[in-house]
Structure formats: structure tokens, C-alpha cells
Task: structure prediction
Amino acid sequence: MSIRLRLTAWYTGILAITLIMFGASIYGIVRYNIFLEVKKKVEEHGAQIEKAQNVSLSQGLDLQMERNQILRLEDARIFWQLNNYVKNTTRISEGMLNREMVFPVPNIDQIGKKGVFQNININGNSYLLYERPLVYGNTIVGLLQLAADTNAENRIMDQLKTVLLFGSFITIAVASTFGLFLARQSMAPIGKVIEAANGIQKGTDLSVRIEYDGPSDEIGRLIGTVNNMLARTEGFYKELDEAYANQRRFVSDASHELRTPLTTIRGNVDLLKKIWVREEGEPGAMDEEQLRKFSLEAVSDIADEAERMSRLINDMLSLARADAGQTIEKQPQLLEPIVEEVVRRANFLPRKALWLQGDLSAIQGAYIDGNKDYLQQMLFIFIENAFKYTPEGQVVIDAVKAEEQVGIRIKDTGIGMDRSEIPQIFERFYRADPSRGVTQGTGLGLSIAKWIIDEHQGSVEVITRRGEGTTFVIWLPVVFNEQPE
Result:
């Protein structure tokens, strides 16, 4: 059974119980009050008749009904029967004679000393019979029976019962119909949720959202929660898909970068083996000096390729630590000596461009929260990158300051690049197309540098134009400044 049918069934059941209890209460209250008035009227006449009796031994305990009392009873449509237990006689009203009816007379030992009411049915007519004992001293000498015709009251109660029953049935039917309609309307958004969930389950489009323009009730909040969940799921899916794509590209590019040095090493090793096993006089055989020279060149090539592989693997390990969420241990560092040491050691790097030191006064006395080794590694990456792509001209390092940050600027007059390439240069294994295959490199250096900058809560600014060179500005937050003496 669906939720809307269960809701309608519960609503109908509760309404039916409520109407039954309400109808029974109305019926009971009306019946009680109607018959209470009849009882009061009969009791009043019985008290008057008993008071008018003049019972004495001299009269032989004769019980009489006065003329005016009889008239009042007839006007009130009350039938009377007067029973004398002493003389064993019974007198009845004229109306009872006309209807040929007599009230049953109980034995004297069955009568209490208080008046009682009972409902009787005679010849298809209903009466409310009141029996009042007539007492002389402590002895019951007679019994007064007064009966009020209650056919009209019973008809009224039957009509009221019919109205309440049919009214309840009609109310339940109408309420159930509208309740089912309202339940269907209220549960319609849940159907949209189910359709959206089925669509997502059968397809791959996580951009589907549930449209809802109703009130912000429980269903509205549920749909909002589901939409937020879908948005988060879509975000997670995109991140996971991008991670898988990056991983596949990373593996592909790493395999490509490793294949070249391995091919070179294997080729040189195979060539050395062939030369060394040749005996003197065979075609291609070399004398000792030639063999020594050739072997030295081959070993040198092997050493260079091995060093290249070592750098690549170290870079990949650095990125793997970054992916694993490894953080850099930092402490306050005076930035000026770190940069000066990098400037000094950069003189020994292989280059064709002129290496110049500009104005570094902006970092004088500046402390940053960082790690010396990683900061130097980051600066060397940018400097080596500038040397690599500046076949002639110059590379200049200087410093600038802006508010609570200092910037280390590395500017070259090399080949530069297009603005459209700037967003990709910090991606792993990315190298601008003109440089790929011409300038040696793995394409991992700038990715590592960007990770180090991010770990130091810094940022990097890139200014470039093809054929005119590139400028990198590494911005780092200053913890405090030490005033120079």
C-alpha cells in the first residue's frame, strides 16, 4: 500500500472514530435531556396526586383521584392507573380504556419505597412508566402508575440517529475523497524525487535537479536536501573523474618521460656489449684508445640519463607526498639570507643567459613562516626554468613589497609564451608546445613549486608575452619585519 493510501486510511479511520464518538455524545445528551423533562413532568404529577390522597382507617383505606387531577393528566397526555393493595382494586384512566390497555401490577413485596421509571411497550406504543408507592405509616397500601406516551420523543431520537449516521457517512466519504486528493497532491513532489533518483541511477547525468515551487515545508526541505546532495555528489563525481583523468595522464606522461632515458641507457649498454666482445681484427673492432674513448662517452650518456631519471623520480615523489596531504614543517625564517644564498649558488647552474641580481632591499628584515629547504627548492625551480627558456639575454632577480606581503621577482628575456598557456603551466608534465622536444625537462618543476607556494600560503603572478620573455612574482606573507640598524 502506498503512503498516500495509508495516510488516507489513517485519516479516514481517525475521522470515523471521532464522528462516532461525537454523534454518540450528541445522541446521548439529547436523549437524556428530552426524557429528563418527561420524567420531571411525570414526577411532579405523581407528587401532587400522592399529596391529595386522604388515607384513613375510617374510609377503609380508599384511594381517590380528584376530577381536576384527572383533567391535568389528560392535558399532559399522561395515562394513570391507581392500584389499592388493601381492597385489591384498580382504577384506570379513560384513555387507557379507549386503548384497551392495562399496566402490569407488581406484587406488593416487589415494590420499593421510592418511585422508579421503566420503559414499556404496549400494543406497539412506547411509554415511560413511573411507579410511585402510596405509603400509610410504614406500610405500602397502594401503587400509583403514571405513563407518558414517548412515541413522539422516540421518533425524534430515531430521526436524530438517522441524521447523525447518514451525516457521518457522507462526511467520511467526502473527507476521504478530498483527503486522497490532497495526499496525492502533497506526495506528488516525492514522485519527482523518485523519478530523478531513477534517472540518475539509469543514466550518468548528475546535473538533474528536482523542480519545486511549493512552500518550504517538510517536503520542500526534503527536496532541497536532495538537490544539495545531488550537487555535492556531482561535485565529488567531477573531482573523482578529474582525479582519474589526471592519474591516467600522469601515468602516461611519466611512462613517456621514463622511456626516453631508459631507451638511451639500454642502447648504450647494448652497444658497449657488442664492442667489448669483438676481437681484434674483426670488422668494427677498436683499438684500446678508441674503445676507452667510446666507452667513456657511452658511460657519460648513461650517467646523464640516470641523473635525469633520478630527478624525475624525486619530483614524482615530491608530488606524491603532496597528493598524500603531507604538510611542510615551517618556522619563522629571515627571508633575505635564503634568497642571497640562492642567488650565489645560481651562478654555478648551466646557462647561456646573463644572471643578474637586482634590488633585494624589499625583503630586508622580513620574516616569513616557512621552510628554508623547500623555499630554496622553489626558487631554484623558477631560476632553472628561466635559464632553460632563455637561450640569450638575461635573467634578473629582485624583490618588491606590497602591504603585508613581499614578492620575489624572477624576470627573463627568453622565448615567453601565450597568455592562454598560463593556466596550464603549473599542471604536471605540461610543457608549452614550442618547447616540447626542444628544451629538456619533465614538466614537473612548476607543479612542485606551486605546491610549495600553496603550503606557505603564498601566490604566484605570471606576466608573459611570446618572444619577449616571462616574469614570475612569488608573493609570500610576512610574519613580521625586523627594522634594520
About this structure: The chain has a mean pLDDT of 80. The CA atoms of residues 206 and 235 lie 9 Å apart. The first strand starts at residue 78 and ends at 84. The longest helix spans residues 218-277.
